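Glyoxalase/bleomycin resistance/dioxygenase family protein: structure, please.
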Amino acid sequence: MLKDSNIMAVLPAKDINRAKEFYREKLGIEPSESMEEGSVMYSCGQGTRFLLYQTDNAGTAKNTQMGWETDNLEREMEELRGRGVVFEDYNFPGLKTENGIATASWGKAAWFLDSEGNIINIAQRS
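Here you go.
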């Protein structure tokens, strides 16, 4: 059943137009389809998708809400920084970043906030 079905992330946005601009300008992603008023769908690699919808609850989660896997984290970060994306630095027990990158036995990862305060991740497996 579900184990064979595609999944999609669902992200909140207080201002859907501001969010669409962020994803276009900073991440280079255009909506693949418009849904009902106040929401858009984005298509990414291998059939993955995410829905962005307008709600006042955006930016309230304190956890990673969506992430991409890459084969070259530093290259992706360099390109995104060139577009104005700012990566978070963390220093928690079990999670410390250096220049925005956390390294673990499984690989490395970085996090940034989108225009709506959602925590987004990019990861590279070892």
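Notes: The first strand starts at residue 8 and ends at 13.
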